[in-house]
């Protein structure tokens, strides 16, 4: 997923955080009740709600 940090800095940070959290979650095998408690970037920008709203884009390349 690509976004432009200059145009939407918080959304871009949220997407990056979501992708990073998913990688960790898949690597460590957290339980199904895993919750995002707080996400902050640059030490002061709370983007927790935005990260919770991010959803993956599923590419539909099926032939039918």
Automatic annotation (TrEMBL):
Name the UniProt record assigns to this protein: Uncharacterized protein
Domain of life: Bacteria
Organism annotation: Peribacillus butanolivorans
